[in-house]
Prior knowledge:
This protein is α+β, with helices and mostly antiparallel strands. It has 2 helices and 5 strands, in the order αββββαβ. It has a single domain (3-69), classed as SH3 type barrels (Roll), CATH 2.30.30.100.
Amino acid sequence: MNINLVKEKLQNNLNKKVIVTVYGMRNKITRYEGILYKTYPNIFSILENNVEKSFSYNDYITGDVKIRFI
Length: 70
């Protein structure tokens, strides 16, 4: 998967509802539900309850972060 394709896909889906699943250490899974808020050169962010949460494109490519559009 190419990082430029990921950036383009997210740019095209700004302001849409998403569920972001983060797979952390020791089998810890965290889910965030919010709106795809902004994209930056190295990260993207969602807005959940007026709090901005940021994730890197590399984590998405490696599978540590998964995005599902609602």
